[in-house]
Specification:
alpha+beta, Phosphorylase Kinase, domain 1, Aminoglycoside 3'-phosphotransferase, Chain: A, domain 2, 2 domains, 6-stranded mixed beta sheet, 11 helices, 11 strands, globular
């Protein structure tokens, strides 16, 4: 018996707790195991759905991470960890999935992972060796999946973050903002001004679509599997018998896209002064596979396009929540996106210039 397991996370009132507790009992050795819950803590996340759980079992301390997801997101994570990454020899560069528990009404899926501890990459320190390990893993992910047969499955069951996602995301964001009208939702003067400001920005970016699409086509390189949310917090660097070992966690947003999608997220998480040498590490790593990157100035335009698509995507869900659920937090989220647009700047040093030179190529 594991003391405290019967009411684990009860205060959170989340769905699927009974199924999660049963899975944890199996992972920890079954009904014959003896121990207790030592500690539960919520990990940093937008929603209270990721928890570190520490137990003492038969005299040994065991720590795991439990994550609640929607069924489609859970399937995407499971495919990435157990099928896609192992297919290209990267199965040991992701979290270890210990078990899966489905809520009986299919409201959610719980995943339980081995706890990697507090070893996420620290962007503030910018340790050269740690960053090299992360960047080289990213290069392996991109180069090994380019033209891989599984890419078609990744596109169908993962996200579509390719060239045309910029166009469709802008269009969807504009449509959602246009639905914020007095007949659908009550708007203050400030809220109306916020909506109009965002619409003006997105419509301006729509005018730039031909230029951006041409740049992505000529310079973006082959489509490949991208992580989709490669913040420093999702990159872990662990000691191993062979040196530093990098792992990527949180494959919620993985899908098929261009390398600029991951690079923009990774680079913007670091101080401006570090970005060029981090990019140079990636450039060197992909050169081993015969890839040639555009110049930093040309690449900056591609990175900005990916960033704008992410900003636009962050408009869609709050706008939908405002119209259909009357969620009060929606305008707070839209205000954050407005601030992002207002403060955006070139991602890489140097004057931006787009030319028709050789793209990323193998």
């Amino acid at each position: 018996m594991i003391e405290g397991l019967d009411n684990l996370l009860e205060e959170t009132a989340q769905p699927g707790l009974a199924e999660l507790r049963q899975l944890l009992e199996e992972i920890l050795g079954g009904p014959a195991s003896r121990g207790q819950v030592l500690e539960t803590s919520r990990l940093l996340a937008r929603h209270p759905r990721v928890h570190r759980l520490r137990f003492v079992i038969n005299g040994w301390v065991r720590s795991v991470v439990a994550k609640r997801m929607e069924p489609a997101t859970a399937e995407r994570n499971q495919l990435a960890l157990r099928r896609w990454l192992p297919a290209v020899g990267l199965g040991d560069h992701c979290p270890i999935l210990l078990g899966v528990a489905a809520e009986r009404k299919s409201q959610c899926i719980w995943h339980v992972y081995d706890d990697l501890g507090a070893r996420a990459l620290d962007a503030a320190q910018a340790d050269h060796d740690y960053i090299r390990a992360v960047v080289e893993l990213l290069a392996l992910l991109h180069t090994r999946f380019a033209s891989h047969p599984l890419l078609a499955e990744c596109r169908q069951l993962g996200g579509n973050l390719g060239i045309h996602s910029y166009v469709t995301t802008l269009r969807d964001a504009i449509c959602c903002l246009e639905s914020l009208q007095p007949e659908a939702i009550e708007l203050s003067a400030n809220q109306s001004a916020l909506r109009d400001r965002l619409l003006d920005r997105l419509r301006q970016f729509q005018l730039e679509q031909p230029t951006r699409m041409q740049a992505l086509t000529e310079l973006g390189g082959p489509e490949t599997l991208v992580h989709g949310n490669l913040r420093a917090a999702n990159t872990f660097v662990l000691p191993s018998p062979h040196g530093i070992h990098a792992r990527f966690i949180d494959w919620d947003h993985t899908g098929v896209g261009l390398i600029s999608y991951d690079l923009s997220t990774l680079l913007t998480g670091f101080p401006f002064r570090h970005r060029l040498w981090i990019l140079d590490l990636y450039r060197e790593a992909v050169q081993r596979a015969g890839w040639v990157l555009p110049s930093a100035r040309d690449l900056d335009f591609l990175l900005e396009t990916a960033e704008l698509a992410r900003f636009a995507n962050c408009i869609i869900w709050p706008a939908i929540a405002l119209v259909h659920d009357h969620a009060g937090w929606g305008f707070d989220e839209l205000a954050k996106v407005d601030e992002w647009f207002a403060s955006r700047a070139p991602i890489l040093p140097g004057e931006r210039r787009v030319t028709s030179q050789r793209s990323v190529a193998r």
